[in-house]
From TrEMBL:
This is Histidine kinase/HSP90-like ATPase domain-containing protein. The keyword rRNA processing does not apply. One of its GO terms (molecular function) is protein serine/threonine kinase activity. Keywords: Kinase, Serine/threonine-protein kinase, Transferase. InterPro entries: Anti-sigma-factor_SerPK (IPR050267), HATPase_C_sf (IPR036890), HATPase_dom (IPR003594). CDD domains: HATPase_RsbW-like (cd16936). Residues 14-104 form the Histidine kinase/HSP90-like ATPase domain. It comes from the Bacteria. Pfam families: HATPase_c_2.
Amino acid sequence: MPEYTLFCPSLDTTPRVARDFVVSVLRSQQLDDLADDAALCTSELVTNACVHAKGADAVLRLTVGEPLAAVRVTVYDGDLQPPILRDGCLDENGRGMWLVDALTEGRWGTEPDAAHSVGPPLGGKGVWFELGAPGPSGLGR
């Protein structure tokens, strides 16, 4: 399974860079049909990491499942608080995880940040989502 890592400094431009990174990888793997949803979900997770981890850097890990057309993106940050899934999307702020939940059909969650293998632990958590082929994709949880 190909795995890609992006270090994400807590900057205003980081969500855009992370989106572009994910889209580039998915297109290179001929997974264009997942690129738009993956870009939006990635943007939400990276934005949350930049806003809520109080200036700490984050690490993005992108895993592409083979032979199934599946992708898993995990964003590790230094914040221990899990994301909040709010009902509906009427408010301008706070609807990011609702979008992630809707686009991934509920295929998202959290894990300890010790699960990332690149660089030192951040002392927080990882928030992940999966898109593509459902079921035993070999992407791990």
